[in-house]
Write a structure and sequence with these properties.
This protein is 30% helix and 8% strand. It has 103 residues and is α+β, with helices and mostly antiparallel strands. Strands 1-2 form a two-stranded antiparallel ribbon.
Length: 103
């Protein structure tokens, strides 16, 4: 008995390779937003006054004021979620792990 398998290209299957040292803008990643949320308001004002923002793939137009306002919910809820910021159909979530050495 013989069997035959046929494969062809399919849409919707995605491979993402991010190597150590790859840099992405903090405002466009879930981990970056968590890190931004941990900064002081003064630091954030300086960051957003100087950061160059641009849509990674054309789906989002980043306005500094909207990005700055987006830090508050991350601080409040304790985690960040991004939807198609860097790449279409790519979603990511991040949360800080806080540990105390005094425990």
């Amino acid at each position: 008995m013989t069997s035959s398998t046929s494969r062809g290209p399919t849409a919707g299957i995605m491979t993402i390779t991010i190597s150590v040292g790859t840099r992405f803008p903090a405002y466009a990643t879930s981990m970056g937003r968590v890190l931004l949320a941990g900064q002081s308001d003064e630091w954030l004002d300086g960051y957003f006054a100087t950061v160059r923002t641009a849509p990674a793939h054309g789906a989002h137009h980043h306005r500094r004021s909207a990005l700055r306002a987006g830090v508050a919910p991350v601080r409040e809820q304790g985690w960040a979620f991004v939807d198609e910021e860097l790449e279409r159909a790519f979603r990511a979530i991040a949360a800080p792990i806080n540990d105390s050495l005094d425990a």
